[in-house]
Amino acid sequence: MARAKALAMAGAAGITPLSPMPRTPRRAISAAEHAQALDRLDTLRAKLDRIVSDYDAMLSLSSTGEAPRGLDSTGDPIFNIGWTALHMPSITLPVLYGANGLPIGLQLAGARYEEDRLIGAALELEAYFQRRPITS
Asked: Which CA distances in Å does 67 have to 30, 71, 96, 98?
């Protein structure tokens, strides 16, 4: 439900997911299917390298909502899976807070092999929120 709401909110903002992420049990795949999936990821990485090279970072939410209470879980990683698969560095800043007073992270993702630019953008965003704190 939280994922559906997050996707609906993203869609309303004109943001579309890179690919649908199945939320059902995984099925076994053949070696050929696995190789084909890896080839598709290589193609996507090359395309994204060209697209993101002009930007220091891309901004998104880091999860579907407020952090869960306790240490049993860090929340739904759905917004990080794509960056990981594409080998793009990402960093989360807990700069927003939800109704329960727990953090809502903003995630920055950057171009491959450009971690220095990503960290610079993260430091600027963190400084911005320290000057202008946002609370619920």
From this structure: 36, 10, 10, 8
**Domain assignment present for 14:** no
> What pLDDT does residue 5 have?
53
Tell me the residue range of the domain where 97 lies. 35-131
Tally the domains of the chain.
1
Cβ neighbour number for residue 125 with a 10 Å cutoff: 17
- Strands 58-61 and 90-97 come out as unpaired
pLDDT in tens, 93-135: 988 888 898 888 899 999 999 999 999 999 999 999 887 756 5
Cα distance between residue 87 and residue 25, in whole Å: 24
Kindly write down the DSSP assignment for every residue of 10-40, as one continuous string: HHHTT---SS----S------HHHHHHHHHH
Asked whether the beta carbons of 133 and 127 are under 8 A apart, the reply is no
Number of helices followed by number of strands (H, E) in the chain: 4, 3
